[in-house]
Amino acid sequence: MPPTTGHPIPMSxxxxxxxxxxxxxxxxxxxxxxxxxIQRCAGGEKALDDYRIxxxxxxxxxxxxxxxxxxxxxxxxxxxxxxxxxxAAPPGKAAGAYDPRRG
Length: 103
Known about the structure:
Blueprint: H1 13-40, H2 44-47, H3 51-61, H4 70-78
Helix pairs in contact: 3-4
């Protein structure tokens, strides 16, 4: 099925697969290896419940979708879903994913 949003890409799907497959495969293997390293650490099993890891898992689930717009939905897996403005930015460094405990 052709894309329903965005601009057409001036190459065939076969050419795009040939060009990007190994790069995409590498990125997935890197994520899997990172999760394995975390799990082997002291406290690793509990760490897999961390909100940042949960966001990664939600993002990876989006890869199963056959709908165009995966990149946007992956980004949203890490984003703050609240709409109310904050009085001030939370203290500390950015976490890279929304922490529902901090609300």
